Amino acid sequence: MSKKQPAQPRKRHSAEFKAQVVERALSGKQPKSQIARELGLSANLLHSWIAKHQKTRLLSDDTQELQAKLVESNRENARLREELAILKKAAAYFAKELR
Fold it and tell me: Does residue 72 have a pLDDT over 80?
């Protein structure tokens, strides 16, 4: 009978460490599998960190784009409100003249 090895506790890696490893992997200077081996990580774990980083970056780009559109929409909304107020005053002025 073979005895099972006791499970090793899961290592927790800081966000800073993950970011550094992902940037190193994305630089393309070394194969990802080599980087994972050197750091004692599984290749699958490194690939999941890279995928999460890329997804976060895409969401960040989308957020910035949406925020720019929101600012532009707010500017246009303010301009249109101002125009509406001027038109209301003009309509009231001309309505008085017709009486």
Answer: yes
